[in-house]
Write a structure and sequence with these properties.
five-stranded mixed β-sheet; alpha/beta; 14 strands; 394 residues; Aspartate Aminotransferase, domain 2; Aspartate Aminotransferase, domain 1; homotetramer
Chain lengths: 394, 394, 394, 394
């Protein structure tokens, strides 16, 4: 029974939404320490070590700005630091979160242009390249891509987007949202020439929500010098200056930083490549279960399968929300809901963050039992298929 | 990765030994509060409320002594408070823990007599009755039974033992070990006329080890007045006197008492009958899995099946310890080992305490995958059988 | 020894900066619970109850927006939701934080006008009234006041500011920063006709940093409809709409909300008026200590003394930072530093948040011993003077 | 407000009884980790490391037995492992706890002989020597001394007791209770030739109550081979055998062991000699305060002053319990009560465990304010005297 469960329920809640994820005890315990003086000497030591260490997770040698704000704030930060009112930005409609980011760009006075997809695959790379080639006078100032679209379970190929921009010979900045991929799916800020990587604490980083990040390239910092969108809270300049000595220009979210320190240590101890391989394996096991049930995976393009979550389509005439409600009530598990046009049509299984094979099997068993309880047509054997895979390959 | 895991392992450890069990967060958080003055006024209020409340878990209206000691201490307490050097006690060989209790009785200078079984069933009630009938001059001072034998997964019928003693018209005390049954399997101290119920904190009570209990009948208190085994730390007298006002004669294990307070609240909120029904259901699901695998359950008498754990026999020539080691390494789950003559022959699945259906499915999936990984001959489909049962009946 | 103390130091750190304050164990334990599904039914119940309950702390019946961002973010929110590019705002130079807020207004493209003071008193109310009377065509859109200036320990009289605005018959909005006063110093959003109250979690609310607040009047919501500063993350509209049912438009800082729930319960259990009286008493005790030492209080206007902190001036030729460093090293206490022009000239004693009389006495004793150790000229007897007061009046 | 305070009280409770002491956050957080399999491989690693490390705190190279039981249990363990029914033991009446230990010895069937003192000094070493010299045929099997008598604040000189036994040429075992001295006052099991050192977790070891210890000499192990008091739970033999590989013969108090691991690390990081010096300093500061108040210290022999606590006598006609109640209510501090004949005549200030100078000053200020509030005749200036000392010497 978790803190706010209103009914007495035995056993640990299965939080299998695609984030926030299950926070490991080690991280919770780190956060549960006294708040310290954020201007004192010990804070500087912590800050310096942490700001350095966190770069490894982004695979960058450049600075990473840490905001005491949730991920949506880091989206805003990426835009307001690099762009000016009316700037054209090329955004890719991968799903609900890409749509929200576009709406934010509009509210901030930018001129987003949207490359549509059918919400069943990642960003349309050839379309990006074509549009950039068209843009002879370089009106487009930035290309914005959601690396892992949390609403659909489709992962865009950032390496290919990079190559497309280069092939078009276009100077636009590349801004990438890794909120639900960082620390779960292979990602390389420097190697892929990303200018701003947007990230949040509550997914692969295994923290509660409340921290967010901008990894920033030299080119992005340069763009910031002339960008004219009003900004203050999210301004990189004061941040980067203060970070030099391990401090922050205004009060940081100290206890979440304790948690971050522990979480990054855990990721590096497991080894990032091992972390990614584990996510890949669990995602494959999940897809095998879905197929065995005879259900359809929302992502229609295998090269774009997400290793962080799998969105599953329900047969016509069946309600995904009724299924989720039944699973919550009977099996004490939270699954992700369908968003926007996918509302009630899909449910989403989060298999990211601090997760082991038996938690995954509990999760898939819960889905399979839920399908039966809720009367959703399916074949049994999905959990069995996942086990077959994991026992050969866990 | 738990506190002392020496390897970085993602995801929560599955602690599926038959105790200590998984301690719920609410209990851990309660324990994680500052230690208080055990002689101050607030302690008295806590103590009084707790000593009263805990009686409900034993289903007694009499006193329950709480020791700042692990369960083995409460075994000793039951003996030294009621018996005198050289006293004959009738004990029932249900398995390893019954054997240890007998050895303790010997070390304490008692004269235990052992009614043997084959470690595949609960106490032999007809044999108890027969032996008591024989004992015309009432040399036997106590009958000692382990309610749930943690080494075999066999639960003795205490109600029948009571009736046997009554049928024999014998005045012996009835001492019952409920260390691995209290809070998991239906148990009734008053209704079944038990004189001393021995219990521990780390199983159905969902606490870490470190507290133990004696529920004490009027007849037992009377016996204590003349019992001559030396005792001090475990003496009921000073305990019961101090408990009147909510205090203890020596320093209690304060932080574990905080946890006990939370744990009892949780059990009562769920409802004891619901708690027992949940354990029965999970035990049945587990046995269906074992049968589907084609393996043998250690308990050969269905009326004695334990709802707290299931011990599973391995086919000849296969090592249970090798299986457990493989499961620990590959799937991050601890299972119980075989004890005494069962060493390496059985493994034990704990399905007691703060457990939900998906944790159980994770557990059974882990066993099934482990059987495959370790090369133990079995049929797949055990987890599936458990799901079939739980989805109809969870 | 706290989590990040780099030296082994016995005993609890005294965090006596004017915020972040000492987080009570009950709040830390609440935060140390598993993160939950922020779209699930239990979250809605928590959210609804919390959004309602928190209003009492602001003494408002209107809505309070909760941001997953630190206090600086709530400053920005107050401005961007109510104002348009180039708007004139009347701000009051009470000290360092008022200056930072003005700089933020400038960076956001507003036209702040600054009413100067000498950093030794609260806002200059007659000057505000005079300036507003001058502003016949109502170019000034908002009056911004820091209720408790954390850099100087001077508290502005918001009730008087209200009366001044009314007396001038001016329609400007009243925006008030209560970051270091809310939950510590008497404050009344509704009664004083405040339009936006800005607050943070890490002072009187006794939480770690990471949450911030805008209490919003009807008039402010109306202003938001036409305000044209770009905004998205901080936009009230989506917030207020989602809050109706207890949810948030984007991921909230769940675990900090658990802590807020506990903290508000604690404040209401003690009673807000009792909380304020306690802060008043501790502030008076502190000032008596300072006077007994023969040192000067930075706040020169007794009607503006802060009940949250006391800034103390050092005699010429002595370094406040050297004193603070000595106290940190020898006595394991953090005090606040001088900011801006007060750098190295004052130190600040925080006496707000979860504080009892003996923690205050430890604090004042630490200052007195520090003065001696650091060779700062003073008379002994400050702690004694505080005790004399508290023992008569605690 | 601590977990079980029935009234809402701001600020941290001052637990200044002479144990249980304030448990450091680092220890509480360690304990707040999932319970692990006490028979698994990771437990063995933890156990082995911990059993080795803890020896340093006792300054022994021999084994230390750790019981999942409170300190009273370790008293019993020391007696039952080394003695036989009817054995004569020479015990020293230093105060209440020595009296309780003697009563335990009687209840266990031993024949204690008591060397009386006036409860205002440590053990009477010449009397011990004289009695042993008298005992020509070595009927006395053990000399039992409480190192630090928690009821009086008098510390016996164990080095001198050792020399007295040697001078008498007597083979008796030396059993020493260090429950309130270990980790606070210089103590050397090996160097002083102690045979059994009894200790508990909840004082200088900075843990909650629930663990206790026997450090055991070769001579004591040898005595155990022939000792005939019945024992089982407390038997060293099975313990020492299992400890060889890092395990325990029955379920250990796992989560308290986590805390012990953290606590021992903290003591060793500070350095035992530094820990003792800190306790000496705080005790001297406390005594200076008591003298400045014009009150009398219970310990009348300066060579026996305790560095762990100071018991203070009240003037005739004044109630120590009324004073303690007033301090608890007004200042949220718990002080120790008078025990046995000292009931209501003394109060005891604990200054041991995880304590810094400002906590001590808060404590002494609370006592001084309490004396005034409760109308106990005294001179002010005690806290000031302590500060004068600490600022010169902290």
């Amino acid at each position: 029974m978790a803190y706010y469960q209103s009914q007495p329920v035995a056993g640990r809640h299965f939080l299998q939404i695609p984030g926030p994820t299950n926070v490991p005890d080690r991280v919770l315990r780190a956060m549960d320490n006294p708040t310290m003086d954020h201007r004192g000497p010990d804070f500087g030591k912590l800050g310096k070590s942490l700001l350095e260490k966190v770069r490894q997770v982004f695979r960058t040698e450049g600075p990473v700005v840490i905001y005491p704000a949730s991920g949506t704030g880091a989206w805003e930060a990426a835009l307001v630091n690099t762009l000016s009112p009316g700037d054209a930005v090329l955004m890719c409609e991968t799903g609900w979160f890409a749509t929200l980011w576009r709406e934010m760009a509009e509210r901030l006075g930018l001129a987003p242009e949207f490359i549509h997809t059918d919400w069943r695959r990642g960003a349309d790379v050839p379309a990006i390249e074509a549009r950039l080639r068209e843009d002879r006078n370089h009106a487009i100032k930035a290309v914005c891509v959601v690396h892992n679209e949390t609403s659909t379970g489709c992962t865009s190929r950032i390496d290919e987007v990079r190559r497309a921009i280069d092939a078009a010979g276009h100077p636009a900045l590349l801004l990438v949202d890794t909120i639900s991929s960082l620390g779960s799916i292979d990602y390389r800020h420097d190697e892929w020439g990303v200018d701003v990587t947007v990230a949040g604490s509550q997914k692969g980083l295994m923290l509660p929500p409340g921290l967010s990040f901008n990894a920033v390239s030299e080119k992005a910092r340069k763009a910031a010098e002339t960008a004219r969108l009003p900004r203050s809270f999210f301004d990189w300049k004061a941040m980067l200056a203060a970070n030099e000595t391990g401090y922050f220009p205004y009060t940081p979210a100290t206890n979440l930083l304790y948690g971050l320190d522990a979480a990054v240590d855990m990721l590096l101890a497991e080894g990032l490549d091992n972390v990614f391989a584990r996510h890949d394996r669990f995602a494959e096991a999940t897809r095998r279960a879905v197929r065995a049930w005879g259900l359809e995976i929302q992502c229609a393009e295998p090269r774009h399968y997400s290793s962080a979550l799998t969105a599953v389509r329900l047969p016509e005439g069946h309600s995904a929300d009724a299924l989720r409600a039944a699973i919550l009530e009977r099996f004490n598990m939270s699954l992700g809901n369908g968003l926007g046009p996918l509302k009630d049509r899909v449910f989403r299984i989060g298999h990211l963050g601090d997760l082991g094979p038996l938690q995954l099997m509990g999760t898939l068993s819960g889905v399979e039992m839920g399908l039966r309880v809720a009367g959703v047509p399916h074949r049994p054997g999905g959990a069995q298929a996942a086990m077959d895979y994991l026992a050969g390959n866990s």
